[in-house]
Amino acid sequence: xxxxxxxxxxxxxxxxxxxxxxxxxxxxxxxxxxxxxxxxxxxxxxxxxxxxxxxxxxxxxxxxxxxxxxxxxxxxxxxxxxxxxxxxxxxxxxxxxxxxxxxxxxxxxxxxxxxxxxxxxxxxxxxxxxxxxxxxxxxxxxxxxxxxxxxxxxxxxxxxxxxxxxxxxxxxxxxxxxxxxxxxxxxxxxxxxxxxxxxxxxxxxxxxxxxxxxxxxxxxxxxxxxxxxxxxxxxxxxxxxxxxxxxxxxxxxxxxxxxxxxxxxxxxxxxxxxxxxxxxxxxxxxxxxxxxxxxxxxxxxxxxxxxxxxxxxxxxxxxxxxxxxxxxxxxxxxxxxxxxxxxxxxxxxxxxxxxxxxxxxxxxxxxxxxxxxxxxxxxxxxxxxxxxxxxxxxxxxxxxxxxxxxxxxxxxxxxxxxxxxxxxxxxxxxxxxxxxxxxxxxxxxxxxxxxxxxxxxxxxxxxxxxxxxxxxxxxxxxxxxxxxxxxxxxxxxxxxxxxxxxxxxxxxxxxxxxxxxxxxxxxxxxxxxxxxxxxxxxxxxxxxxxxxxxxxxxxxxxxxxxxxxxxxxxxxxxxxxxxxxxxxxxxxxxxxxx
Length: 594
Prior knowledge:
Elements: H1 31-40, H2 61-76, H3 86-95, H4 99-117, H5 120-126, H6 136-149, H7 152-156, H8 161-175, H9 178-181, H10 190-202, H11 214-228, H12 242-257, H13 260-263, H14 269-283, H15 294-308, H16 322-332, H17 344-358, H18 370-384, H19 396-410, H20 426-441, H21 444-447, H22 455-469, H23 472-475, H24 481-495, H25 498-501, H26 517-528, H27 531-535, H28 540-554, H29 566-577
């Protein structure tokens, strides 16, 4: 690729970039409610795009194991969060919503590691399913298991298209074989990503020219520049927002090579300051901040203080907000940086957040603001799994919620016995506690303890457990017909097992065709684009609907010939000719039960 570097303008005085991004903002309800809420979106497909280094087969197993442990720890420390345990981040995500985003970052990182090592145990042991990322472990397992076999057919056998394509990208990259990219649908958003991965791996710019879309071509060139650490290549990025992308490319290479001089080639002042900060953090040389002035220097010290976990650099901030620096540093170390804050209200809030994340529960006692102290006791208790902190919560219902959370976190049903609210019947007090434990312990017998309660709560317990385990036998314990059908539908779609559909009512319940046997079959057929599934649907009317849908999905009018109703057959053929959509039936998974 011909290099045509641009002439650089003179560097002007740096100015302050935008304020440091805050990591945390609010609180959610007790963990049991969050667990139930998570069930609602349990089957939303994970949409992760992976990008990892080629698998290294030259190292010894012991060396790989040592490095793998270090890499797992690095993934868990993403976004400056000092969390080493999967259950801890699951609990913390309930207390501090932004942990959901941290989980996604960590899962991306861990999936890349699992792919690098071709080790599916990483998927099961370390990845975390969450409300935003509900099928992380399953998707990771599909991809890694297929890659371990080392052939494209294994990727194509994955029942979910997006995971097929991620698998093909990784296989193409490991083999440096552009032909594997061509197995991805030309209409897919992943086809350009596959070309970019091969071009970066081979550092071959000619492959970028095979991409017709200018934005895709720019992404490809940028990938090569960053992979090869060749800053001159950054100037070949000419698509939309080219200046900003060129400068981000330079900053990335500067940080990776620890080269401050590259930052001087960046003309946008905020981008230049950000570049200096990235190099300073990456090279652990905070003196570089001194090359900036005023607020830009303060921002640099803030970033270095957090990166190096050193409160002394917070103290160097003159014009910026020292409190933000102390607060964010306390989140990744311990509550002690909060003591440098003179405002008592902000100090209390700083300590509260730090205690929740760092699990220094005893520090709750030193919070002077009563509301913050009470929240601290309630929220830290399930994280450290100690009931004694719940005992300090004064409000009866808040204390109940605290006991619920600790019982669920500990999987200890005896803790539910601590719940005693005067004037409230026992079943109403302990129902959520039992249900939460049944879900996390995957124990249907615990749902039986809800026998004296309203049937809806008991069915909810079975539903949450059945959909978590993808177990149709648990669904069949449910008493109410519609919710039982909903449960079976969820399990069938998750397992892609048509035999589960047979347990459903043929016509749905209460006129709701979504959770009928025929739609269950059709949705699996649609998911796999597999017309053979239509053929085994028992009911002729449902079978015709399935053919209609598959004809539309595959844009194949010949499938319409299998429809036995003549008018429906003709309508199907016209629909395909006109590029029409599906006939009827929703395949989205349930949201009405809760």
